[in-house]
Design a protein that fits this description.
Layout lengths: L1 H32 L22 H8 L6 H10 L4 E6 L2 E6 L2 H9 L4 E3 L3 H7 L9 H16 L1 H26 L4 E2 H18 L4 H18 L10 H28 L9 H5 L12 H14 L2 H15 L2 H16 L10 H5 L2 H14 L5 E5 L3 E4 L7 E4 L4 E4 L1 H5 L39 H18 E5 L6 E2 L5 E2 L4 E6 L2
Parallel strand pairs: 2-8
Antiparallel strand pairs: 1-2, 3-5, 4-12, 5-8, 6-7, 9-12, 10-11
Helix pairs in contact: 7-8, 7-18, 8-13, 9-10, 10-12, 13-16, 13-18
GO biological process, one term: brassinosteroid homeostasis
Protein name: Cytochrome P450
Membrane topology: Single-pass membrane protein
């Protein structure tokens, strides 16, 4: 009798838990979806998760594990391979797009989808940059900046500005490694910042470099924080650091203008000098405020990518001896065919690094930085799913659209054995449009692709020819938030070859 009563109590408790659980899980859905009226019937499959938290618990659980793919995999398992799903993440009702077709549709449609960055990014980037300006001004600014990013003259200048940084840094790492291991991730982060500052400023005083570095780090940390402007919060600290950066960079602009007026020239010109010279079709130049804002956003946008690409490409190469040997032989061949009078790398030689370019592309695919891009629906938009092409889903105005790069790059339907490092997959590659999107797409596609690849190519050229990497803990766990890196920052020795 007592046992029957106990089972009855347990059954009632379990039933009550299930009812409460189901009710609570539906609250977020009712709140965000019911207000859409008839549009709610055309939303893609998915669920809105818990009140306030949304689906962040399951996202964090997956990305703090050793297999972040489980987040998208669980959604696909529940709702099918539609490539478009409703969810609630990062504090907003959102739509995830995770197939080449749906990602490309969002990236290419500027009329219906705009940038969806958070308040921290939009405030810290500056009002005169690509992040915040209107479409017509964006088109004008992008056209002006393109010549600074892809022209032959500009790229040759950037090679000259960064080559000596790579050589000097490798020498320093090798010397330091004789005494104790270096943290390879931290050192590549410092190197990447040196690269971009040398590209932006050419030659300038060490005090400018150190001042910019100090305040840049605070601004960078603030971009990834919650926009709470109160003492003690990262965003508050970042806003103060940005004001200091503006003063420092304005001083550099004033100095360059004065030098130009007096007919003087720096030992090495940088992108800042080109910014002061470029004009739009009507002959209008960039104002000082425009230049300073652009310098800050370029610092923010051009640091993390090369940092992680340099680190992971080196780690992947030394984890795959046959691929390492093939990449090294290509660099040796470039040296053999170089005229004896030539000093340093040329742009033509970098363009000849076909296999190294595949190594870089494979690194970008596998490391997935960023793992998603943010967009926002400017108006109600319709999008077709991956498989049910006759079915068109609605993305409501104001909802975030999360372009899940990692899902695309790690999908075996797009790339066979996606977790394997295999540069040969890019031989005669005819990937479906939208299946390789580390730099975004459409009119918002990153302008600095060529510059970033030059930085990585220069580093790997000298590393492959003259050094080797010895990781102390190659089996270190990997963390995926906020970016993919070894949890121990990759302690290693950089050894100079005889």
């Amino acid at each position: 009798m007592e046992l029957d009563l106990l089972w009855l109590i347990l059954a009632i408790a379990a039933g009550s838990y299930i009812i409460v659980y189901a009710f609570v899980r539906r609250v977020n859905e009712w709140y965000h979806v019911s207000k859409l009226g008839e549009k709610r019937h055309f939303l893609p499959p998915g669920d809105m998760g818990w009140p306030f938290l949304g689906n962040m618990p399951s996202f964090l659980r997956a990305y703090r594990s050793n297999n972040p793919e489980t987040f998208i995999d669980s959604i696909v398992e529940r709702y099918g391979r539609t490539g478009v799903y409703k969810t609630h993440l990062f504090g907003n009702p959102s739509i995830i797009v995770s197939s080449p077709q749906t990602c490309r549709r969002v990236l290419m449609d500027d009329e219906k989808f705009g940038l969806g960055y958070g308040k921290s990014m939009t405030r810290l980037a500056g009002k005169n940059t690509f992040v915040n300006i209107a479409k017509s001004e964006h088109r004008r600014l992008r056209k002006m900046m393109t010549s600074l990013m892809i022209s032959h003259e500009a790229l040759v200048m950037y090679i000259g500005n960064t080559e000596d940084v790579a050589i000097a840094s490798l020498e320093e790492w090798a010397a330091a490694s004789k005494d104790e291991p270096i943290e390879f991730f931290c050192e590549t982060s410092k190197l990447s910042l040196k690269f971009i500052m040398r590209i932006l400023f050419g030659s300038t005083s060490d005090s400018i470099f150190s001042s910019v570095e100090k305040h840049y780090i605070d601004v960078h940390d603030g971009v990834h924080s919650t926009a709470i402007n109160l003492p003690g919060f990262a965003f508050h600290k970042a806003l103060k650091a940005r004001k200091m950066l503006v003063k420092i960079l304005q001083k550099v602009v004033d100095e360059r203008k004065a030098m130009k007026k007096n007919g003087e020239q720096t030992a090495k010109r940088g992108m800042i000098d080109l910014m002061m010279e470029i004009e739009d079709e009507s002959g209008k130049k960039l104002q000082d405020e425009d230049i300073v804002d652009l310098l800050i956003v370029l610092l923010l946008g051009a640091h993390d990518g090369p940092t992680h690409t340099i680190m992971w490409a080196t780690i992947y190469l030394y984890g795959h001896p046959q691929i390492l040997q093939k990449a090294k032989e290509e660099q040796e061949e470039i040296i053999k065919t170089r005229p004896s009078s030539q000093k340093g790398l040329s742009l033509q030689e970098i363009k000849q690094m076909e296999y190294l370019s595949k190594v870089i592309d494979e690194t970008l695919r596998l490391m997935n930085l960023p793992f998603l891009d943010f967009r926002e629906a400017k108006t109600d938009a319709n999008i077709k799913g991956q498989l049910l092409q006759i079915m068109s889903y609605t993305i409501p105005k104001g909802w975030k659209v999360l372009i899940w790069n990692r899902a695309v790059h790690m999908d075996p339907d797009n790339f066979s054995a996606p977790k394997e490092f295999d540069p040969s997959r890019w031989d005669n590659n005819a990937a479906e449009p939208g299946s390789f999107i580390p730099f975004g797409g459409g009119s918002r596609r990153c302008l600095g692709i060529d510059v970033a690849k030059i930085e990585v190519s220069i580093f790997l050229h000298y590393f492959l020819l003259n050094y080797k990497l010895e990781q102390l803990n190659p089996e270190s766990p990997i963390v995926y938030l906020p970016t993919t890196r070894p949890s121990d920052n990759c302690p290693a020795r950089v050894i100079k070859l005889k």
